[in-house]
């Protein structure tokens, strides 16, 4: 994918628009104290907006893949591979961030999920060798799947 392709231009546009709205807020306030209710509510609302945006991105990528399959017909496995790869990576990232939170998951639950994941990765870093991760109960899973 080159610099001039439509996907790169779209990403640049989204990043520019996002920085206009998010820049001043991030500069003004980076952290919430435990007793700051207003900050928690603002962070939770931002988390909900981010989840809706990520859901729409997944929906668009899923629709692009579906349209590519319909357009290409029998050759879709070769010609739609890059779109499928983008969708799979986005779905994996979505599940890493929002998976297992449920419908009512909030920013605190997502933060704790991220914290637990980082701690688990730090504790099990020494078990990784040759591209294969060994799960504590003896199951071996390729790092490509993780």
UniProtKB/TrEMBL annotation:
InterPro entries: NADH_UbQ_OxRdtase_su10, NDUFB10. It holds the Pfam family NDUFB10. Keywords: Electron transport, Membrane, Mitochondrion, Mitochondrion inner membrane, Respiratory chain, Transport. One of its GO terms (cellular component) is mitochondrial inner membrane. It is a peripheral membrane protein. It is found in: Mitochondrion inner membrane. It comes from the Eukaryota. Belongs to the complex I NDUFB10 subunit family. This is NADH dehydrogenase [ubiquinone] 1 beta subcomplex subunit 10. It comes from Petrolisthes cinctipes (Flat porcelain crab).
